[in-house]
Design brief:
The structure is a single chain. By secondary structure, the chain is α+β, with helices and mostly antiparallel strands. The chain has a single domain (7-140), classed as HIT family, subunit A. The chain has three helices and five strands; from the N terminus they run αβββαββα. A five-stranded antiparallel β-sheet has the order 1-2-3-5-4, covered by helices on one side. A hairpin with a 3-residue loop joins β1 and β2 (27-31).
Amino acid sequence: MTDERTIFGKILDGDIPCHKVYEDEHTLAFLDVGPVSQGHTLVIPKERVANLHELSDVSSSAIGRVLPRLCRALMKATGANAYNILQNNGTTAHQVVMHVHFHIIPKFDEQGLGIGWNAGSLDPDQAKQLLGSLHEALARDS
């Protein structure tokens, strides 16, 4: 469990107001107060953990269920025909609020998320070794 006094914890506790888009038993979605584009929405679990890999199956399923629904609503409401989903884990990955959250960022020509992609290449031998390690880790996590 993460520090319950993150800004998202304060929103969940009702100490800070938000522009609520959606809420159910496990999730809350609200407009970002520093939007990258019109309709920029944050989706958070009510479970208070910092990173996605710490999230329970129940909370992750709830977020997976609601994200497509919110994306459809945002596209209709804003007129956007494209969007990005952004989710960061850890400060070196640009996470600022240490509570799992997903950004839905509608894209309008120049307005919206801009990203760079520094693609490399996958070495077949490294891929084989990595796959072995991943399969072992997944088997232990079952």
